[in-house]
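Record passed on underneath.
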Amino acid sequence: MKNKGVKKIREALGNYIDTLKLEFTQGMILPTVNGVQKEPSKSKPKVDLQTKVAVGHLPSQHTSVGVKIPTCKFNLKDYFMTSPEELYRIFITQELIQAFTHAPAVVEATKGGKFRLLEGNVSGEFLELVSEQRIVMKWRYKSWPTEHYATIKLSFCSKDDGTELQVECKGVPVGEEEQTKSGWQRYYFEGIKQTFGYNVRLF
């Protein structure tokens, strides 16, 4: 009697487990397999949804040509007690850039030449170099979205006994405006003045 009871319980449990497995595997397969019954109409929206999600992610994955993100533009200017020629030279000479940033730099001062400053935190490419007048470059912080660059234009204007530097920044990611402004003022403007003595203010 005892043996028969154990045998019947085992059979019942076996049947129950088989039923569970069948139901479970059917639930797993039906949404993904192209069935012939009622399920295909339910599974099709899931496939469409997955396709939409994949397409939605494509722009952020293919970033080799840049990413489309909200951007802003702003202008900065400062005054340096030196000639346009001397100030221009400071922005394109590797040794002078290393002096005012106090960090290693790599600078190829030609059209299409690359640069890396501040231990790789700033990088870019020179788009236009007009001696003593203008520098245009692609410029980015390392923390910005991959391959996204702002366009920075530096204009060197002779004024009185010094040079007014006008900086036009376009394509700066929204939310990065203040950091970019303060970075230019701290690492470029103040760094150059303190290193080369072009101050017009006493601190």
